[in-house]
Every structure is written in structure tokens, then in C-alpha cells.
Amino acid sequence: MVSARRRTAWATGISTACGALALALGVAVLSAWWFGIEPLVQPLPTFPEMDPSTAVWLVLLGCAQLLLRNPAVGFSR
Amino acid sequence: MYVFATLTLAEYTLGADLKIDRMFIHIPLHSTTSYPSGRSAPETAGVFLILSAAVVAIDMRIANRVYVTDALSTLAWLLAVLPLAGYVYGSTALYRGPIPRTGIAPHTIVGIFALSFGLLCLRPDRPMMRLLTSSLAGGFVVRKLLLGALAIPGIGLLVMVGSDASLYEQPFAAALLAVSAMAIALILVFFTGRALDRLDAVRTESERHVAESEERLRYLIDHASDGIFIADLDGRYVEVNDAACTLLGYSREEIVGKTIMNFIPPEDVPRLDASKQGMLQHGVAHIDEWKLKKADGIYLPVEVSAKILPDGRWQALVRDISARKHVDRASTAAIEAVTRTAEASVRTVLRTIAMEAQRATDAEFVAVGIRGDAEHPFDPWVVVGLPPDRAAAIERFPRATGLLGLVGTQTHAVRLADLTTHPAFRGFPPGHPRMTSFLATTIRSRGRPIGSLFLMNKRGAPEFTDHDERMVEQLAVRVGTIIETATLYQAEGLERAWLKSVIDQMPDGVLLNDINGVTRAENRMLQEFASTTNQVDPWGQPVRYDLRLPNDQPVSIDDQPHIRAIIDGKTTPPTEFALYHSDGRRVPMLVSASPVFDVYGHRSGAVTIYQDISAIKELQRLRDEWTSIVAHDLRQPVNVIAMDASMLDARLQRGQLDECRRSAVRIQRSATQLDAMIHDLLDASVIDAGRLTLNRKPTELIFDRFVRSESTRGSRVEGLGLGLYISRGIVEAHGGRMWAESTAADTTSFHLTIPVIVTASSDGSLPTVTLHKGRTA
């Protein structure tokens, strides 16, 4: 059985990576909207584009996920 | 964020534009959507609303083991899978929303996956992640099936690619997809089943090992020499082993269900509570001695090692220490016997050991013998239980042969139900009491046999028990050193007494001080001089001897011979001092001191010798007096004789007959005077035999020989200073006493008493007075 400490360590690592990925994606798309980098907003012309609101949500949820890595932090106890 | 997503959905539902999408973001790109630029698609807003709720409710639970975040994250993940499938399989309906030109972008799907999986990983100890990461069978199956479930879309994609490339027809593609999914499912089932089978085999093997281990443990518990008690959370015994039952004399059924309170004395209850609290707080095994009540009502001394088991039950290992207690008591009594008196008697120690062994085993006779010489193999030999007259009736001293000799060659105790049946038994000597049960062991000190302990005739039982044997063996080991110590004490005591006797008999004073100046020994001669002085030695102790210089000046502390020897470590040569007796007499002493060293060469004190030289001093005074007598008193008549004799011839020639006659008279008178002096000297030497003059008062000194006052010396007063000396000698020879008393008026009166025997006459004449010692007056 995976020990509790080891499981917590790698789960926290994955969570951090996922949060950072969402945050980076949101920041990248917002930047793309701002600087007019169309391939980042819409990878293919036939695909839907990621809207700025969606990018903002990614940034905010990514930050929230990074902050919630500490078990002591939560919205309800 | 949560509100933001809700308002976005409300905009779609109500067809309103709340302009919230452009509050923070300026949109430089051209808008290709049908809805206001910057607003997310409704399905995207819905998924983010779910994710926002998952974040807000991170620690909320739906049920006992179901968390809101886990459920919402999984839902968001599943909602993101649909548009992903649309992209993979080319179904635009799956990623395009109900409103034209809207939908979930592919990188939005990536973000949703990252966020939903990240939220699940935030709390890895929750049931879903715990199951996913478990190494047990459940976790193993979940991981395998999840892998298969993720593989099926990939297979489907490959089938679709082949169909798009016109490699096969649509029905073939559908059949291929179904067969592939079935193959994946079969593979997963097969491997999962095999893995579960292995796991089950391992589990079964483990259970078998556990069962065997439990069986061995059960065997060990049942056959343990110590009692094992296991109690539940309420302290009631749920399991005990055979040794525990034997220990207390109860059956297993009688003990199970009871608590420790049923066995300990009431006065130990507070101590038990304190012990429990200590174990609960510190969680370590607690070892202590207790008394447990046996079935026969007797309290048994035990040593208990108690511990709280991981499951909360109490476990106690109980050991009977009654034998150890007997040995402890016997050892303590023997040690007290050694230390009670300064000169310990080995016999006293042996008797104490024998009596304690008798008390512990209830033996009728106990004997202890220490190895002696060839003539007396056991010397000393102490017997308890045998009256002195019966002991005296035994004609032979115990010999180290037969059974007694056999014991000394054994490494363990010898225990016999009937010693007369043993092959080594040689019979009892005449007068020996009849003995049957026998228990004996060798007494050892530092592994070396020094004697033997014998116990005979256990009262109330046919033979001695295992418990008796253990106790006796432990006792023999413990008392060996004590007996050797007692032997050394006795030898040391004898040596000390001998040394003290020698020192006490010495005519000189002997003083022994330790390195701290403490008086360790002083002989009788010196003790007579002990007095109180105002001086204190360097170690703060009062100086007990009034030592002065020959001129009567006090001796400083640092110049005291014994202190110099202790501090300087050097021998002080014999030096003349004056030591004052406790009665005030002044006695000239030659004092010398030497440091004393221990076996390691370290200075440990000093020895001081006080030699009374008053006799030598008296001899010196006599020599001076003699010189004076010879120089003056004896020469005076001789000179007169010589002068008159030399003039006699000339006067005869001149016819001076009267002058010649006067010269002859003077010669005769001087000769008579000279003869009297010589007689006095002879009488004095007779009287003086064995008498020694010490410093005394002047009224005592005048009775000494050759004593004349300073004023008469060199004067014409005749005499050698022997008159009073001779007078007292005569009086004392007749059993009388003579003394002088001086008054302040410079008058001296002399007194004498002589014992007489008065006999009344029968004829009326004066009674007859007879001196007590032979002469009649």
C-alpha cells in the first residue's frame, strides 16, 4: 500500500502542476487576446475560440487550486 | 467567479446583456461569435460554474464518505469528455453549443481536465483518491479498469481513421469497434482476474502464516512460566494462561470476567490508579511489584509488566517473585549481621542465613558450612533446628565425603525425597537425628565454591519443592559475597584488635590522624593527656592536646608535629616539647610524627609518637645534683681533713698540742660527717628502687632525694637533701604516710601517720603498742 505520506506528496505535486497548467493557459489566452495572437485563441479556424471570460476563469480557478494545496486553507471547515 | 459564471448563464437564459464580459477585458480581435464579444459559451459557463462550486465546497460532504468537490470535479471532467469526443470523432454537435458559432474550445477542455483532476488531487486522503492509489485489490481493479476505459476511445479513433480512409465499410468499422472493445474488456478481465488470484493466494498464505504465528503465540502463552493476563477496555480479564491460573490457584473460568481489583489489597488501589494514568499518558510498559491474593487467601508478591496493547486492551506479564523476596530478605539480614557489629562474626552471618533459609522453606534442619582445612572440611559449621545438646551428642565433625562431599561437586542443587536411598549416602554418625528429604547447594563467590548450604526434612511435605530449590540456588549465589565480606571483616577486626592492644600497651603515646586531621586512634597513655584547648587545627577541629615548647610557650598550629606531617608529608624528627596532663601536670615529651601512606602511595594521614622523657630529665637533674654534692658538700669535709692533716705534723714539731688536739677533733668530726653522708647515699639508693619522680608541688618535691632549697646550696647548712627522703622512706616502710603542708605565712608543717596495733594488758599495766609492720614501741 502506498504510504499516506508518499501519496500526499505526489498528489500535491499533481495538483500543483494542474493548477499551474490552468493558470498558464488562462494567462496565455488572455495575452493572445490582448496582443492579437489568433492561433492561441482559436487553434483552427473551424474550432471555437476560447473567450476572454473563459481565460479569466482559468486564471482564477488555477490560483484557487494553488492556494488550496494547504489543507488548512478552505472555504468551509 | 461563481457569481460571474451564474450571471453569464443568466444572460443566455434571459437574453440580456449585463456587459459583465467586457468589464475587465478589452477585446482587440474581431469577434466571430454571435453573442457579445468576450462572453463564454453557455456550456463553458456551466462547467466553470460547477468547478467554482467545487472550489467553494472544498471541505463539504454530501454523505459520510462522499465529498461535494469530488462529485462536482468528476461531473466537470465527464462534461469535458463529451466535446473532447466530438473533436476526436469529428462530431461537431458534441463541442458546438446550441447557439450558432459557439462551443467549447479544445484548449478550454484541457484547462477543464487540469482543474478537475487537480481538485481531486488536492485531498488525496479522500475515498476516491485513496481507492485510486490503494495497493489493495480494490485499487488494483480500479486502476486496471480505468486504463481499459481510457483505451477504448483510442481504439475507436483508430477504427474511425480506417473508415475515413475507406479501408473498410461502415458496418465493418462498427463490428471492428465492438470486437476491439470486447477484446480490451476480455484482456482486462483476464489480467485483473489473474492479479486478483495472485493477491488472493498471497492473502491466503499470509493468513496461514498469521494462523501459524497465532498458534505459536498461543503455545508460548500457554506454556510461559510467567502468568499472562489480558483485560478488555473495562479492565476485565478476557484471557489468561495456565501459568496465571497456577500462580493464583484459580481456574481460567474463575479469573476471566474479574478485574485486578479482585486480587490486589485495598491499600494498593491508589498506587494502581497512578500506574494506570502513567501508562495512558506515556504509553510505555510499566514494571512494578505488587501483591496478588491467591485462592487460599495469601498474598503473593509478584512483579508485573503491564502494557496497553494497540487495540486498547491491557496486557500484564506476572512473575512470582516470592523466592526472590525470600532471598532479598535473607541477604538483607545477612548484610545487617555483617555490618551490625564492628567485628562481625562469620558464625553470626551463617546463622542468619540458615535461619532465613529455614523460614523460607520450612525445613526442620538447616546447616551452613564454609570450606576449611583437611582436618575440618567445614569450618565454621552452623546448624539451625538442632538443639545444642543433640548437636553435641553427634560424635563426629561433618566431613566432605559421601552426600555432603557430592554437593560441593555439583553445579546445581541436589534435591532428594529420601537422602538415605542415594548411592553416595554413607549413613548417619552416632547421635545424628534421622533425616529424609534433602536439598543442598554450593555457595559460590565470584564463581568459586566457598561452602555449602544443606536443608533437611521439609515440614508438612514429603520433599522440597521447585520453588524451594530456586530460592536456595538464588540464595547461595547471593550470600557468597556476603560471607566472604564477613570473613574479611572478621579477619580485619581481629587484626585491628591486635593492633589496638599493641598500641595500648606501648609506654609511649601514639596518635593516628587521617588526612583531614581527624583522630582515628590514640592509645590509653595519650588519652590521659586529652584536654580542651582554645586552638583549632587547619580543618576546623579543636586541638585536644595542650602542647608547649620547653620554655612553656604555646606551639603554633602549623608547628604541631602531626599537622606538619599531614600537610608537608615529611617526617618530623624527635623534638622536645612539654605536654600538659589533664590534671595539670607538665610532662616533658619527645614528639615525632611521620606521614602514613595507603597502598597506592597516597598520603592518608600521620602517626605521632609522644615519648615521656621525665625520667631522663630527672636523671639529668640527679646528675647535676650529684655533681653539686661531689663538688661542694663531699669536698668540704674532705678539704677539712686534708688541711688539718697537713698542718698536724707541723704543729706537733712546734709542740702545739692543743692545736693538734683541735685538728684531730675537726678531722674526726669531718670523717663522721663524711661517713653519715655516705650512709645517706646508700639508704637513698635502697629507698629509691622503682620510684620515679614526676613534677609535683614543692611540698611534694621536698621529699625527693637530693632536694635542697636554692638558698641552702653553697651555704654552710650541712646535708645532702636526703633527710626528708629517708624519713618518708622509713614511714612508708612501716605502712605509714608522711606529708608536708605550706601556708601563706611561709611556714611548713610536717605530718606523719603510722598504723599501730594496740593490745590491752591483762595485768592492768599500759597497753602494748605494736607497729603494724613488725616493730614494737
Describe the structure.
The complex is a heterodimer of chains A (77) and B (777). Chain A has one domain. Helix content of chain A is 68%, strand content 0%. Chain A has 3 helices and no strands. In chain A, helix 1 runs antiparallel to helix 3. Chain A is elongated and about 50 Å long. Chain A starts with a helix and ends in a 10-residue tail after the last helix. Chain B has 5 domains: 188 residues, no CATH class; 97 residues, PAS domain (Beta-Lactamase, 2-Layer Sandwich); 167 residues, GAF domain (Beta-Lactamase, 2-Layer Sandwich); 102 residues, Beta-Lactamase, CATH 3.30.450; 142 residues, no CATH class. Chain B is built from 23 helices and 20 strands. A 6-stranded antiparallel beta sheet of chain B has the order 12-11-16-15-14-13, sandwiched between helices. In chain B, helix 13 runs antiparallel to helix 16. Chain B is elongated, with a radius of gyration of 60 Å. Classes of the chains: A mainly alpha (77), B alpha+beta (777). The interface between A and B is large, with 51 and 57 residues.
- Note the run of SSEs of chain A as H and E: HHH
Helical content of chain A (DSSP H or I, runs of 4+): 55-70%
Number of helices of chain B: 23
Major β-sheet annotation of chain A? none
The radius of gyration over CA of chain A amounts to 16 Å
Q: What is the makeup of the main sheet of chain B?
A: 6 strands, antiparallel
